[in-house]
């Protein structure tokens, strides 16, 4: 119960903070927009955790793993926010940072189109079809480690950028 309350409060606070950052957005420096998106993505992830802890995913199986690609946004948004604060230039090539997220969404589409029964079986680690086994393998062997590696790389890049900015 405490876990549910803490996650719910964290999620609500994150949504409020992202809204506040959006309303204080400076048109000349859109760093607030990037920070608002970062906080919104974190709050969205927390809200899915709230649904999981509350057992709501069993009642609404079409929400299962809908948030899986979201973790691929944490690193790029944090990096672009720090980059925007430390460098006045913003290049269009920065859109490429969102390629892993887009790829994760595309890979997840066949899972999202499945029935509620399929998703419930997958959620309980008892997939009944070849696609369910394939997605479970993809998720366990590729998605989870790749999320961690990408986030770690972005954290290192953010750290290097901050060190470089301090010496400039």
Write a compact overview of the structure shown:
The protein is mainly α and 168 residues long. The chain has helices at residues 2-23, 31-53, 56-59, 71-86, 99-112, 116-123, 130-167.
State the share of residues found in helices, binned by percent.
over 70%
Number of E-state strands: 0
Cα end-to-end separation:
49 Å
Proportion of beta-strand residues: under 5%
Overall average residue pLDDT: 88
What kind of sheet is the major sheet?
none
Tell me what the structure shows:
By secondary structure, the chain is mainly α. The chain has 7 helices and no strands. It has helices spanning 2-23, 31-53, 56-59, 71-86, 99-112, 116-123, 130-167. Helix 1 (2-23) packs antiparallel against helix 2 and helix 2 (31-53) runs antiparallel to helix 4 (71-86). The longest helix is centred in the C-terminal third of the chain and has 38 residues, at 130-167. It is globular, with a radius of gyration of 18 Å. The chain starts with a helix and ends with a helix. The mean pLDDT is 88.
């Amino acid at each position: 119960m405490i876990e549910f309350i803490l996650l719910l409060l964290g999620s609500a606070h994150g949504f409020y903070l992202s809204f506040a950052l959006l309303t204080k957005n400076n048109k000349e420096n859109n760093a607030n927009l990037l920070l608002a998106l970062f906080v919104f993505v974190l709050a969205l992830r927390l809200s899915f955790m709230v649904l999981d802890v509350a057992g709501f995913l069993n009642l609404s199986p079409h929400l299962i793993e809908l948030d899986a690609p979201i973790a691929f946004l944490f690193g790029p948004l944090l990096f672009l926010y720090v980059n925007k604060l430390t460098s006045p230039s913003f290049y269009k090539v920065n859109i490429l940072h969102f390629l892993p997220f887009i790829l994760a969404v595309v890979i997840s589409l066949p899972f999202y189109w499945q029935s509620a029964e399929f998703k419930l079986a997958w959620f309980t680690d008892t997939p009944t079809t070849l696609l369910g086994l394939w997605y479970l393998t993809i998720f366990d062997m590729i998605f989870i480690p790749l999320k961690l590696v990408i986030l770690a790389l972005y954290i290192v890049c953010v750290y290097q950028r901050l060190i470089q900015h301090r010496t400039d």
